[in-house]
Write a structure and sequence with these properties.
By secondary structure, the chain is an alpha/beta fold. About 35% of the residues lie in helices and about 15% in strands.
Length: about 325
């Protein structure tokens, strides 16, 4: 007999096959919920509003290591992104490289958001710039954005709010900020402000080199299941994992199609081949073992940056029955 299940997740190519009913979940009648990710995360962490949900990996690490998270993770990673491209600077402040950010005032929507966690981790690993070397300011991305939720204030980090009426884009434009870490290009950059550019202007080449050197395609989000559901129905986790894996395979295989292209981009199959040449054919994989390097890096970043109060192990993050699940639905 099928049972209802609410699932909150963004509509990616790798989740749309589930939402469209092309991929079923064994024994489940799902109701899919989509909303701005900030809203999904807040409702999940604060209200436990969904049975299964996409989660910020960084905030999941913080809660798991501290007060406890109401969700247990599945090794399903619907969002991944390199974040060298996420750092924007003013060109009139003498910032020529990553080390020049030391002592600077740098904005971020939420200190604990995963995009910033990864960007700071890369700056420390590759350039020796620690999170504590920077003076951090937080606030909404622009005048249309909601106020961020501050879940953690790390020790030994200067972290202060912007003035009440200010926002990150305007503060960068006015010079109140020297730089900004943002998960999407700020309005001031999109508007073509002459004194704003990315820290790493040739970021595609730099990110490809990072991937070759480290073997890491950074994870931004994971999927979580409410703990009480796992306790009462442990087999649910594997059924959900298998369905998300089947949807991922469906999307990636269709990306390579040339007869009737699945993606609107005209050279998508060629781009798919280029990405596979850099990252390997299973560049977007699920399962713990295939992603251990990326997960271990996130755990290390979180502890080093004062977000997680202890260094977590990858095995602590996921439902026990999924630890040996290899994420292959073929």
């Amino acid at each position: 007999m099928s049972r209802p299940l609410s699932i909150a997740v963004a509509p990616y190519d790798r989740t749309l096959p589930l939402m469209a009913g092309l991929i079923p979940i064994e024994g489940i009648t799902p109701t899919y919920v989509t909303a701005p990710l900030e809203e999904i995360f807040a409702r999940a962490f604060d209200e436990q509003a969904f049975d299964v949900t996409e989660l910020s990996f960084s905030n999941y690490l913080y809660l798991t290591a501290s007060t406890g998270c109401p969700y247990v993770g599945l090794p399903i990673f619907p969002s991944r992104a390199f974040r060298h491209s996420a750092i924007y600077i003013r060109t009139d402040r003498g910032i020529r490289g990553p080390r020049d950010l030391a002592g600077r005032v740098v904005g971020v929507r939420e200190f604990s958001m995963t995009a910033a966690l990864v960007a700071r981790g890369v700056l420390e690993d590759d350039f020796g710039l620690r999170a504590s070397d920077v003076r951090w300011r937080y606030g909404p991305a622009d005048k249309y954005d909601t106020q961020p939720i501050v879940r953690v204030r790390p020790p030994d980090i200067e972290l202060q709010p912007l003035p009440q009426a200010s926002n990150l884009s305007d503060a960068l434009a006015s010079g109140e900020l020297d730089a900004l870490v943002a998960y999407k290009p700020p309005k001031v950059f999109l508007d073509g402000h002459p004194s704003i550019r990315r820290l790493f202007e040739d970021y595609p080449a730099i990110e490809a080199d990072y991937a070759r050197r480290t073997g890491i395609f950074p994870i931004m989000h994971l999927v979580g299941v409410r703990k009480e559901l796992v306790e009462h129905e442990p087999g649910l986790c594997i059924r959900v994992c298998n369905a998300f894996e089947a949807a991922r395979c469906y999307a990636l295989e269709r990306t390579r199609e040339t007869q009737a292209p699945f993606i609107s981009l005209p050279w998508a199959p060629a781009e798919s081949a280029r990405v596979e040449a850099i990252l390997g054919s299973e560049f977007w994989s699920y399962g713990l073992d295939a992603n251990r390097s990326a997960i271990d890096a996130l755990c290390r970043y979180s502890f080093n940056q004062g977000i997680a109060p202890r260094l977590l192990k990858a095995e602590e993050l996921f439902a026990f029955e999924t630890l040996a699940w290899n994420g292959v639905a073929r």
